[in-house]
Amino acid sequence: MLVLMRLIRSGAAALVFAGVLAMGGTAFAVLGQPSPWQMGFQESAAPTMDDIVWFHDFVLYIIIAITVFVLALLLIVIVKFNARANPAPSRTTHNTLLEVLWTVIPVVVLVVIAVPSFRILFVQLNIPPSDLTIKATGNQWNWTYTYPDDKIEFTSIMLQDEERAKVSPPPPRLLGVDNPIVVPVNKVVRVQVVGSDVIHAFAVPSFGIKIDAIPGRLNETWFKATREGVFYGQCSELCGKDHAFMPIEVRVVNEQAYAAWLADAKKKFAMDGSAPATSVAAAGAPKTE
Asked: Of 118, 123, 163, 208, which residue has the fewest beta carbons closer than 10 angstroms?
């Protein structure tokens, strides 16, 4: 009974804590960026992330059902088979039906989980015909983006606090950059990822993408942004002292705005030598003092 009382007290404490958070204005995910006291994923802005969110919720329901079932068994054992209620315990050691069930049921549960997970993995790894290709090169500690079809290249470096103050509205701290990726909405974007020095990782949570940037190896992923807006990510592989200062900013715009940006980018970031394509990189990694 002492164990039962402890379980009840723990459950009550958890409910009270959850209620306090709810009344205190606990924030849920905000589109494109993390939010204070966030619970759950960032809001989805791509079909691949929709699949990930669905699968997460699907598995969560299964986990809850298993947890409730196991808790019920524990409570039954605690109440019905304690020494006071059951002074002469049974000496049964085998039950064929029960042993078959506790072998078959977990296998069925795993198969139910595996089938949709394999489908989602296939969708993520099977890159459809793309409308746009971007090569992301991870450097210590910034990103270089290349649009090979349009022959433009630029380096993206995190904005310092004084630089953020000059932007209206100011981007999130440690996430805003000087030269973001710009892509058109509702277009399939192929992202080729490589590292120039050490292993990095290209990750944008709202698009459901995360892939390692490995020196000497070209990895690929893709996304199709279904909403206009600004979406942030970060390097997600420890890559040195300024690992925390390698943000990724993706601006999703309509086709007219993208065409206007592309025309301007071809003048500023041309790869033919007529413009200093890597001039931004000369600024070096952000200062962290």
From this structure: 118
